[in-house]
Amino acid sequence: MVEDVVRLQLPVSEELAIQKNVIQGERGSGKRICVITGTHGDELEGQYVAWQLGRILAEKKGELLGSVEIYPSLNPMGISTIYRGLPGFDLDMNRIFPGSEGGSMHEYVAKKIVDDIQGADLAVDIHASNIFLRELPQIRINELTADKLVPMASHMNMDLIWVHSAATVLESTLAWSLNSIGTPCLVVEMGVGMRLTKEYGDRLTRGILATMTKMGMLPDYKGTIHQPLISHDGNVGYINANQSGIFMPEAKHGQYLKKGQLVGVIADPLTGEVREELLSPNAGLLFTLREYPVTLSGSLIARVLEV
Fold first, then answer.
1. Are 153 and 164 in contact, with CB atoms under 8 Å apart?
2. Which of 46, 113, 205, 243 is placed for a possible disulfide with 276 were both Cys, Cβ 3.0 to 4.6 Å?
3. Alpha helix locations (H) across the chain?
4. 194: domain CATH number?
């Protein structure tokens, strides 16, 4: 059943409508899970998960105990215009939560979204990377909520769980706002901007179904679930370019690297020279790799999880 979360009148007889698909189980009351995506208009990986999950759960309503609410597009104008933020306002929607009833239009929308999700037993906030970087499927968690959220994240079929220090987590995000009011929220990052990676979407869909089984919302899930690596900020190595040019990868995304192994080079198309060789700072999993080849000094090239 499709329901409005918020609907507002816009100029020129247009409307801003944020909607959700509510799948209510036929086995009476139970737990409630919210699956949220589309906060950034250039992050489309969650669109596939929303479609797959809605399709699968529609067939499982007779087995479902509780309800699943799927929010495919928190920023519909951004998605329709392929714009990361809120078109016309130069705002990142994930920097205005928890919003305000008496604030601007977008602050009001943010408040209505938080109010609608509040009280869920679990919220899954799905993001993709930007157009510059490709990410392995991962869940990012604030260290202040790690004790509660890491056990919940362990069944989500991701490659890794990255526990961030509190200083690196912005308090104006949807996840922070929900966790601060007692609604557990997991942030998923996977894939690359403006693309759908079917393999990653299928993995997350299976992970959500497995997590629902652990929560008692579905009968036993039969699929195989990947056990994630758990990392902290201290065991993630960063590779940044010191030179501008064109990045040419030598290592493959998802590959296990040796310390000092060549990850790629920065090339100069004008002179034909190799301006810089980029080496892994530690042995581990290459979980972030630059997708967009043009680099400037300081551009992030890769992240390597020490294992």
1. no
2. 243
3. 45-59, 76-81, 105-117, 146-153, 174-180, 198-214
4. 3.40.630.10
Q: What are phi and psi of 82, to 5 degrees?
A: 55, 45
10 and 38 both lie in a single domain: yes
Whether pLDDT at 166 is above 80: no
307 vs 304: CA distance, rounded Å? 9
DSSP lists the bridge partners of residue 240 as: 300
Q: What are phi and psi of 59, to 5 degrees?
A: -85, -15
Round to whole Å and give the CA distance between 280 and 275: 17
| 204 closest CA partner among 65, 70, 300, 113 | 70
Domain boundary residue among 176, 209, 227?
A: 227
Cβ proximity of 62 and 26 under 8 Å: yes
> Tell me: the pLDDT tens digits for 63-119?
999 999 999 999 999 999 999 999 988 899 999 999 999 999 999 999 999 999 999
pLDDT for residue 165 is more than 90: no
Which single residue is written with the structure tokens 């329709």? 80
